[in-house]
Design a protein that fits this description.
Layout (H helix, E strand, L loop, with lengths): L1 H27 L7 H51 L1 H7 L2 H11 E8 L5 E9 L2 E4 L2 E3 L1
Antiparallel strand pairs: 1-2, 2-3, 3-4
Amino acid sequence: MDKELEGYQAKLKEVDLNKTRLEREIDSLPADAKYRERKLHDMTLRLDSLYDVIVELEEKIEDARLRRDAIKQQAITIENIYKIMVNFDCVYNIINDEEKRNVVTALIKEIEIYRNDESEFSGVQGWRGSYGAFVGQREYR
């Protein structure tokens, strides 16, 4: 991501130097130059196309920066989630009952229960969470 951004910035610098050089050429074109008006017209068209490239590169740079920042933001979020999971018991003990229900609902999608018959509960066969399924002691993704 950073290399892509550096590439766009280097290209922008190059195009900006070309634009500056062309502007100097336009400004220094002698008044008595042969075909002056045509040359000015051609140079102006080239200058316009350089501005188009500059705008395009600036948009690409902004897009790359936004993507890079989003990746950094996501990494920070994952790091924070990891810290919360490491201290899950502490966090779970201080949240209220409604928040506890929301956490459990978010983590567990389905629970399968062993039944010997319709009236007798035998135990938990397995459960499926948001990030995988557990049957007995085995995890399946």
